[in-house]
Amino acid sequence: MQIWKTMSAVGAVLCGSIGHPAHGQDIQSVAALEQQLQSFLGKDQGALDGASYAIDQRLRLKKCPAPPVFEKRNDGVVLIRCVPLNWRISVPLARKGQSRDRTSYTQMMVKRGQPVLLVAQKNGFLVSRQMQADRNGRLGDIIPVRATRKSHPILAEIVGHGRVALPSF
Fold first, then answer.
1. 165 and 143 in contact (C-beta within 8 Å)?
2. Domain annotation for the chain: domains and CATH numbers
3. What is the three-class DSSP state of 79?
4. At residue 30, what are phi and psi to the nearest 5 degrees?
5. Euclidean distance between the first and final Cα of the chain, in Å?
6. What separation in angstroms does the CA of 28 have from each of 34, 58, 63, 81?
7. Do 118 and 142 form a contact (C-beta atoms < 8 A)?
8. CB 157 within 8 Å of CB 164
9. pLDDT tens across 47-101, in order?
10. 45: closest CA among 105, 107, 86?
11. By CB count within 10 A, which of 7, 25, 85, 91 is most buried?
12. pLDDT at 97
């Protein structure tokens, strides 16, 4: 009987320590990721071809055992990936042609559930389709949109009121 009490006490201690990082040592620093992103891009946040917004400070990512990989995708998005742990963050870039007016960035352009027009344009060829927004968003935000409730979401960049475009097309 004494053995079972001892083993249950040891088990409780072990289970209590699982899932709780010791003083943040197992959490990836978002501030460090932002600094690495800024040096990768060579631009300040908000500058042309720099990050549009700061990385969300509420993120609690497990610390990457290898250096995170930074990958620029078609001048619209930078992916920050941790290959060993299989997490990634998408960071939209400030692009040429976007209004630099502060009010346009703070004004909500798309609301969740709202029908939006998805536009894909390349070499004078334009395709558009009616979609539904899965999230609220402002100008320049990248949000998931889908054709029907059961279809898989597609990431699209908000380019105006009720209009989204494929960022890497």
1. no
2. 21-92 (no CATH), 102-165 (2.30.30.760)
3. strand
4. -70, -35
5. 67
6. 11, 11, 4, 12
7. no
8. yes
9. 777 787 788 777 788 899 999 999 887 757 888 888 898 888 878 887 765 544 4
10. 105
11. 91
12. 57
